[in-house]
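JOB MANIFEST
job_type = single_chain_structure
chain_count = 1
residues = 444
[input]
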Amino acid sequence: MRVIFPAPDRMHTLGYPKLAYVPFLIADDGSYPVEANRYLRERACLEWRPKVGYGEERFRFNRSLTINSLDAMARRLMEFLLWCNKEKNSNAWREVTYQDDLIDKWQVGMLDGSASRSQKRLSNETVNARVAEACYFLIWAADRGYRESFDALVSLRGSQNQKLRRRNNLGSVRVAALPPERSRLSLPTEKALSKWKTLLKIRHGEVMSLFAEFLIKTGVRISEGIGLRANDLPGKNFGEDKNSWRDDWVAAGEVPCTICMGIKGPKVFRGSQESVTPRQIYIPIELADRMDNYKREGRATLILRWITSGKSRIDRDRRKKIARTDQFWIGKRGRPLTAGWVRQAWSSVECGPWKWSPHRARHEFAVNTIVDYTQSLIDVAKIPEIPSAGWLHGLMAGQVQIILSPLLGHIDEKTTMIYLAAARERLLSRFVHPVLIWQKECDE
């Protein structure tokens, strides 16, 4: 079974713009699962929405889903249908029950690997998402008369009074939902990161190295990084010589930059990468200087080199037409960087840090930001010894909410706790050797 997206231009031409970005499923034998695809269509078009809790007239997903969210939804449903086919037949979902089938068989199978296609244990978050999607589909199927009623067992959170739960944003939780896993963030040391940067520059060139530094020092997502436009970086045209940054930017040591492409969340329209709400990032002045130099000289040179390398005049004319792009980052091939290209380059460097990836660069920025701000406050307070864990946690938690959240765009509670744990370890290592820290904690 496969997830397929239609050709948007073709759908608009045929008069179906509403379905231009709605995915559908096709089985390996070419059959078309009618009910599953109708569910995807109604979910994508907000014609049907799951309710929040039992018997409450509130709904989840009150805004249009992005293409990535639609793709993830379709893949979760596909995994459920594949499991049904493996267990019984293609129509087995009509007889599936919550406790006996979804929980005792499918959920248990995903946890021990027997019900996952990779034959590996899936994370609690993945298992919960798949089971929840299966519940939505089965509830929808019962509403549409495709099967008997389906009851997903839920337990109320907080007050039993519906008005109080609604006012306090309390609802219900699915019975047998798995608890979130405690994950520990592993970040590279300064020495390992410096070595990796050097090898990346040698193997993949100046632009890839500069892009990596941009991710590490600004904390943007990879989608936001490759979505950066040439006009997003402010011009270095201030001062008497018209070749300087603004005085207040120089004093702050950062250049503000407003981005609107690749940001997580609602888009201007489905299929677009432009976000409804642009956000501002801050680029260190030294990095901004090199990016400005690349924008003025290196970027145009790379595009021109790619055009002139065409083997024939026809090929060069073709390249000249498709080379028109306002994307900021242009690779050695003369084409804009893509997420796949960047990930492949990062992973191809020998002796790279463990589990190092473009998204880990965002974590590196977050932890470094918390540590630097907390260290500055400790220096002002002139604290000579190791601060208590409670004092550190309270201080750093405040930095996350006030400083880090606006810089990263969004941080959930789970990620916040991971950042705080990693920042505390890195900060304590600046005070004393880790062995002594461990010894002190053992003594306490």
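[summary]
Residues 54-58, 158-170, 433-438 have pLDDT under 50 and may be disordered.
The chain has 16 helices and six strands.
exit_status = 0
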